[in-house]
Structures are given as structure tokens and as C-alpha cells.
Design brief:
Shape: globular
Strand order of the largest sheet: 2-3-7-8
Number of strands: 14
Radius of gyration: 20 Å
Order of helices and strands: HEHEEEEHEHHEEEEHEHHEHHEEH
Distance between the termini: 73 Å
Amino acid sequence: MSKRKSPPEQSELVLSPTTARVIQLSAEIQATPPDDIEFMHTVLCQVGLPRKRTKETRFERNNGKASLLITAGEMYNDGHWEKLFVPYGTKPRLALFHISTEAIRTKSRTVAVGRTISEFMKRLNISQNGPSREAFRAQMNALCACEMKLGYGSRNLNARPVDEFDAWTKNLAKDSTIELSEKFWHELKENAVPLDPRALEGLQHSALALDIYTWLAHRLHRVRGSGERLTWSNLRLQFGQEYTDDKNFKKAFLIALRQVSAVYPDAKLEQVRTGLRLIASPPPVPRQTVVSFQKVIGSEP
């Protein structure tokens, strides 16, 4: 007669590195306010880049009155213009977080991005192996060459993010730079959403989780009254273009939302039969932390 196997002790349970890191960062976020702040444009917090590669050269995402339209650009390389793709996935998102934050911190639209591509990837906590470097370079070229239009209500803004990109030349004596376009830079200064860098670190494995986090960071502290209800159909229009059906989208969204809730513990949401109810919540970065940051860099609160 075989012996019944005892259940594993808690100490024997093995968490994935990603889950373990999310748990660790969640504990830190609940214990202390952030030492630093990262930023993202308010429209890009509501409507994000594609999460998967698209064959189309034009990508549109909408959320209520906010809309993002990205068109793939071209880059001059070795005597010819190369047609690029629409930037997608986690890498251009992480780059935009860093570039936007450094522009606000230094009060300049010219941002240093390291002497080498590996140095910049290290700043973003991205693996620097050979294939990863080439994939990252392709994404940066696509991001810097793309055309971007932001819409909100009846307002339209042609705001390509980058005017000039010194793409890690062989001159290692100085940092390469990215120069934000004047329009994007002006809009960013006026409409930046503060984000906790520890939360971004914990979610950097998932473009969907990053999008949900930035959306909630922008949205929840603006909720009034008894809350706002969003149906699964509405959420799929905003987040689910890459999913083939409602069931797959809902499953992926709820998995990502659990991770987001871990690193945004003050976020208040309820799952209801038809979707989600958003409840007024504090922003992920306390107001006092933002004010202290603005004083340090010499900006008006």
C-alpha cells in the first residue's frame, strides 16, 4: 500500500523570480513612500502603444475622449531610408518612462542615454545579451522615428516624441542623446503623471500590466462619488485589441490586474458581474512626495 504524500511545506514552495520580485516590491511600497518619481504623459497613461507587433504601419488606440495614433516612421541608414515598424511591447514603454522622467528632472528636452546601448539598457534594467541588444536597438529606432498624434475631445496635437536621435555612435567619449520634440516636451511638462519607479520595476515583464498601472495612476484619484463602472466591453476596447475574444482578454486582464494591485496597494476596485467598479483612491505617489521632488528640481508645486 502506497503512502499518502504529505503536502509540501510552505518553505518548499518555489515562486517564480517575477512573482517573488513583485511580492518584495509590494512590501516596500506599503512600508515607505518612493525615494524617486518617474513620469509619463497623461494621454499615454490612458492609451498605450501596441503590446504586440503589428503588420500595419498605423496603430490607433482610444479611451473615451483620449486617442493615440502612431504611424511607423523611416530612418536614414547607410545611404538609404529604411521603413520601420510601429514600436510595441515593454521596451519602448520603459524607454519613454526614463526619457520623460530625465527631461522633467533636468528641465531639458535633450536627454542623455548613455555612451553605449548596453549602458542605457542597464539603466532600464533590461538584459544586455546580444539578441536583446539588437531587439532593443530596433525598438528605439522605431520609437524615435515614429509619428504620433494625441487627441483629447476636440483637441488634436501632432506630437512626435523625438526630434533628433544620436544613435549610439562609435564615439564613446560622450553620451548619446535623444532630443524630444518641442510640442511633446511642452505637453509633458504640463501633463505628466507621477509614478512609483518600484511599481514599474515590478511590472516591467508585462506591457499590459504597465498599461493598467499607468491608467489607474491617472484615473483613480479623479473618481468621484460612489465610483465609476466600466464594462468588459469598454475595457476590451481600451486594452484588448491584441486579444481574439472576450474570454482570453478578461483572463489576461485579471492576471495583470492582480500584479498591479500588489504594487499599487491603495488602488480600490471591485470586480462586478459586467466589469469593474473604480473607487476613489489616493494616487500611487503621495502629493507631498511630488511637492518635495518639485522643490528639489526647482519647479513650482
